[in-house]
Write a structure and sequence with these properties.
Helix content is 35%, strand content 21%. It contains eight helices and ten strands. It has a five-stranded parallel sheet, sandwiched between helices.
């Protein structure tokens, strides 16, 4: 049986040759995306209905989701921002979330989980403060002095480079909902079909390009899944924020249409 990592060809003289495939992952799964830029461009084509709409904001989940979101925002001609959120893990069982926090002092608590596992109020506050401190550090690192975009009443495209179990994305969705967007659209290049089925009822729309039955890790579907440096994230966000600034300057000069100026932090 021919290995999925090998490709067979036959020359005119009948000689059989083998060569390594460059478009397959470690487990024989065909690569779908060259890198995050390629994934973002392909994802943008599926989101064409949101292009050039004044109510649309693209939110990238750092770090890997920001390069994907940048390509989506560029194609949509929409402003780009980072969405910083972290789940609150049960002490000793950190993968089990009892809530989430996000930029802007947003906190969501799952009282059912808290009561079921016996998380104390002291543990809730200690965990919340530790996570908020890390969020504030990353927010300053990625945004600098720029305040976040206001998502209230707008269509938020929440973008990542992929979803595995969905626990972190669910925490992000719950936190984003507290900011009162008109619609939440989760958009990712790849996620297991089972995860998509669980998350779809929690958002207004879920767009996923590739939903494999067999799934080991997000990176297996990328030829290049190298880590995204913090400075690259900051640079993309600064460049991606330019559509909002352009809209603001136009509005100040009397141009028609709503402004996408960044509001003061509440």
């Amino acid at each position: 049986m021919l290995s999925p990592l090998l490709e067979m060809s036959e020359t005119a003289s009948g000689t059989v040759k083998f060569k390594a495939r460059t478009n397959v992952g470690l487990f024989g799964e065909s690569m779908v995306f060259d890198d995050r830029i390629d994934a973002g461009r392909k994802l943008a084509k599926r989101l064409e209905a949101y292009a050039k709409r004044k109510d649309v904001i693209v939110l990238g989940i750092p770090r890997g989701g920001v390069p994907v979101a940048f390509e989506v925002a560029k194609a949509m001609e929409a402003p780009l921002d980072v969405f910083l959120s972290r789940k609150l893990g049960v002490p000793g069982q950190e993968e089990l979330a009892f809530g989430a926090v996000a930029s802007g002092d947003v906190r969501v608590l799952d009282r059912q989980i808290i009561e079921a596992v016996g998380v104390s109020e002291r543990q809730i506050e200690q965990t919340t403060q530790a996570v908020k401190k890390e969020l504030e550090r990353r927010e300053h690192l990625f945004r600098g002095s720029r305040p976040p975009l206001n998502v209230e009443g707008r269509t938020a495209l929440l973008v990542d480079d992929g979803i595995a179990t969905g626990s972190s994305m669910r925490a992000a969705i719950n936190a984003l909902r507290q900011m009162k967007p008109a619609r939440i659209v989760v958009a990712v290049p790849v996620a297991p079909v089972s995860t998509c089925n669980r998350l779809r009822p929690e958002v207004d729309e879920l767009v996923c390009l590739h939903m494999p039955e067999s799934f080991f890790a997000i990176g297996q579907f990328y030829a290049d899944f190298s880590q995204v440096p913090d400075e690259d994230v900051a640079g993309l966000l600064q460049h991606g924020a330019e559509p909002a600034a352009t809209q603001t300057r136009a509005a100040e000069k009397g141009a028609s249409g709503p402004s996408l100026d960044r509001p003061a932090v509440e």
